[in-house]
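User: Hello, can you help with two protein structures?

Assistant: Certainly.
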Amino acid sequence: MIRPSRAAVLGGVLLLGLALSGCGFGPDPETVRAQARVVFDDLVGEMAAADPAVLRAVEPAAEAEQPCGEGGQGSRRALVATATLSITAEAEAGEETMAALAATLDPETWDRIRPAAEAAEQHAWASPDGVVVTVTFDDPVLVTAVFTPCQD
């Protein structure tokens, strides 16, 4: 007769307990979405606080669901805000504004990631929970976006 090891039995009990309690692996999707909203609101607040002689017309778009994953079977939330650089702003004002937005992201939480190849003036970060932040400057428009991880 084969006796299961004590570790295997304890592991099975733990998995059964997680299954019965409704807990899964990874962060709760609603918590991640709420945290993404807080980050987005902080970024939009930073944009709105910019000198109007530099950045004008900060406009957050309505929160949107986007398809993602294999065959578009999943969805993620996209939070996007745009602003326009004033025509009277100094040439380096766009880069300075991008740096101010980046400074709102805690480097202990946010890792710099490679931006999209087609977006020359884009900076991007990812959190351990899979939230992605992008800041793109396409003179004269500054676009800030926060994406939640893909959920099935």
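That covers the first. Now for the second protein you mentioned:
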Amino acid sequence: MKKVNDRVLRWFFGIPGVIDEQVRSEIGRLSIETLIAVFIFEVLFNIGVGIYIYFSTIKDFESFFLFIMTLHLFLMIGIIVFFTSFRLQRRGVLNQEVTTKTGKRNAIKSIFNKYLTKLPMMFLFIWLLVTSLDFDGQNFMNTLLSWSSIRQALQPSVALTIIFIIIDISKVRLLKDES
């Protein structure tokens, strides 16, 4: 069971090194802080949306609903990324140190594989965001499956994937042998 937990932690948080007690306690503390931040965000976001709906006259509720759901999704992802990944990076948990050049090549290959598997998910998120902001009460499926919305989502997905790969490759350090 411990190997499964380590694998899930490694996959979800992107931890390249060994998961020891210090890393687990750091992840636990940051996860609790993230949960508190998500709860506060949910309360404030829902109060804000409720007040906006109460005091405004919304003519196209479907567009408003899709926009609010997409905005909520991206704000949640942003909060989770800020409270976990950026803070783990600042504490040095996500840095990857290797001892040999073949280890560095393997680490870079694993970074490529990680982001190539995340590319379809990123494309889907951006595709839904572009479509929900663009369909203006028209048929949602026609707008979703149009070539322009697919192209508008594919370009930033590929560009962001390349940027993230470059950033992660810069974190791989080759340790010098001291002998």
